[in-house]
Predict the 3D structure of the following.
Amino acid sequence: MNIRDRQILKIALPSIVSNITVPLLGMIDVAIVGHMGSSVYIGAVAVGSMIFSLVYWLFGFLRMGSSGLTSQALGRRDLPEVLRLLARSLMIAFAIALLLMVLQVPLKWLMFWLIGPTADVAPYATVYFYIVIWGAPAVLGVYSLSGWYIGMQNTRIPMLISIGQNVVNILASLTLVYGLGMKIEGVALGTVIAQYAGLLVALGLLWRYYRRLLRKEWLAGLTKGLGAFFRVNGDIFLRTLCLVAVNLFFTSAGARQGAVILSVNTVMMQLYLFFSYFMDGFAYAGEALCGRAYGARNATAFRETLRRLFLWMVLVTGAYTLLYVLGGHWIFSLLTDEPEVLSASGEYLFWACLIPVAGAVAFIWDGVFVGITATRGMLVSSAVAAILFFAVYQASVGQLGNHGLWLAQVVYLAMRGLVQTLWYRKNY
């Protein structure tokens, strides 16, 4: 293993651990409400978690934009700009959070209209929403800080933040629900407490390891770079809208085909998530290492890092594809024991095996493009792929049914990587 591989794994492995712990926040809440004696509590947490996942996903540019710009500034050894980037990102994060809290009533109405919770679930989901919305400053603040840490080549701190949030969430929710006798309010409040605990950990570690950077005179010119910051993040925001549109349509199209098909598609998407947890780690390595080499104008280091990232992509993709081909049915049986779902899943397992192959290239390019702030390429690739997704679906669903939906999804994943490859070759 050469030095470049060690650098990649030093960043990728903590990121993979962080990615694996993220779903635990939602799983912990579901596990607690699952023992409250009514299914409406589970539905309320499911609806609330979906709302905030969707809303916060739209502002993922706070993490990605911070990461790429920071890694380039670090590569140039422009430490004043490194600090200003963090300040800009936090300033925008808290402004967005304030706006979300001020507009929480129309936001709740819009999200309930989109998701459509049943009449028995809606009141409890409303309680959950109006409590958890107050965690917005903590969530978006952690986005900014995590992106900055990745840009600083440090993924251990985001890992510690994720672990800390989960520990606090377990302790707070159990105490509030079982110790103080609270219901959905306790679960929601436990989530908010965990979110602010994560922000405090992030700020505490910033002071612990980077306080030498915190000099007032370096904040001069704070607003000067906002144009570039908004340009980069604007592209990422629009690109995220494309992803959200495809994912929402994919879910709704499956739901229209009945409960069994919806369940099959949901379980199969878990296989994609398992794969993404690992590939995102290497994407983060691409953000940090390629961004730093690009900022330092070190073409040799950049090309070697890119080559090693794609080698790791081949290894991970091959391992996951083999796992799904040989053990796909077994994995399905772990995720569900419903006979109808298991029976129907065999017909669609082929598509699950194609997911790693179709999606792998886009993961690596996403990381590299964030690192070199080639965000226009990310936007163009996502837009082209989204258009093709809807075109393939409309052309094939009549004859292929759910197979047409999965064909569109696989084409969409592959097209993102293809367009990014062509964009890179043309512009770099």
About this structure: The radius of gyration is 22 Å. The mean pLDDT is 86.
